[in-house]
Task: inverse folding
């Protein structure tokens, strides 16, 4: 544990990618309906200014472009 109270632990990148995809699908499944998992990064870059991960992989903050 650091002085700021945060932890420096590894997170599961596959889990984060799935959670991001689920969040996009929750807004509109059409945005990623035909997008392969390996091409999702390009879609995410167009949709979000940032996706921030906090202490846990499921603690995500999304900053949308629109």
Result:
């Amino acid at each position: 544990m650091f002085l700021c109270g945060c932890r420096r632990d590894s997170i599961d990148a596959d889990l984060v990618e799935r959670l991001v995809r689920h969040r996009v699908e929750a807004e509109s499944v059409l945005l990623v309906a035909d997008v392969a998992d390996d091409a999702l990064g390009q879609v995410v870059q167009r949709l979000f200014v940032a996706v921030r991960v906090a202490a846990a992989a499921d603690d995500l903050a999304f900053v949308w472009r629109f």
Remarks:
- The mean pLDDT is 81.
- DSSP finds two helices and two strands in the chain.
- The longest strand covers residues 48-53.
- The CA atoms of residues 16 and 57 lie 6 Å apart.
